[in-house]
């Protein structure tokens, strides 16, 4: 099993920035990919970003390309999501997820609220 704990969310003004962290513990050797997702009230969960646990390939959802950056620190078993140029429509609970072929493990989420 792998446990994930996110942090770094908060209230920020339109145009502001935040950095989210996701710390993994447990059987982290089984992880091959790390993803970030978000879910706003009344909306479906949306893919935000992905990074492979080894290598440098990253992928982003269309709504965050050019504004968000995903990264990781393998030594710390931690993934990061840098959120820049935030907009009110970015308001959501942000979850990190990890796994191999599928998203096997999920964190509890961290709230990001962007005020206009």
Please describe what this structure looks like.
With 116 residues, the chain is mainly beta. Helix content is 0%, strand content 57%. Strands 2, 4, 5, 6, 9, 10 and 11 form a seven-stranded mixed β-sheet that branches. A four-stranded antiparallel β-sheet has the order 1-3-8-7, with no helix packed on it. It is globular.
How is this structure best summarized?
The chain is mostly beta strands and 116 residues long. The chain has strands at 2-7, 10-13, 18-26, 33-39, 46-52, 58-60, 68-73, 78-83, 92-99, 103-106, 110-115.
Largest beta-sheet details: 7 strands, mixed
Gyration radius (Cα, Å) is 13 Å
State the assembly state of the protein chains: single chain
Tally of extended strands? 11
User: Any idea what the shape is?
Assistant: globular
Secondary-structure topology with pairs:
Blueprint (H helix, E strand, L loop, with lengths): L1 E6 L2 E4 L4 E9 L6 E7 L6 E7 L5 E3 L7 E6 L4 E6 L8 E8 L3 E4 L3 E6 L1
Attribute tags:
mainly beta; about 55% strand; 7-stranded mixed beta sheet; 4-stranded antiparallel beta sheet; about 120 residues
């Amino acid at each position: 099993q792998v446990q994930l704990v996110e942090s770094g969310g908060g209230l920020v003004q339109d145009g502001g920035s935040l950095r989210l962290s996701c710390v993994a513990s447990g059987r982290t050797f089984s992880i091959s990919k790390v993803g970030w997702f978000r879910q706003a009230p009344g909306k479906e969960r949306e893919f935000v970003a992905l990074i492979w646990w080894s290598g440098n390939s990253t992928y982003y959802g269309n709504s965050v390309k050019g504004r968000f950056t995903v990264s990781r620190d393998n030594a710390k078993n931690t993934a990061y999501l840098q959120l820049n140029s935030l907009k009110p429509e970015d308001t959501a609970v942000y979850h990190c997820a990890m796994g191999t072929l599928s998203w096997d493990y999920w964190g509890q989420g961290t709230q990001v609220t962007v005020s206009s």
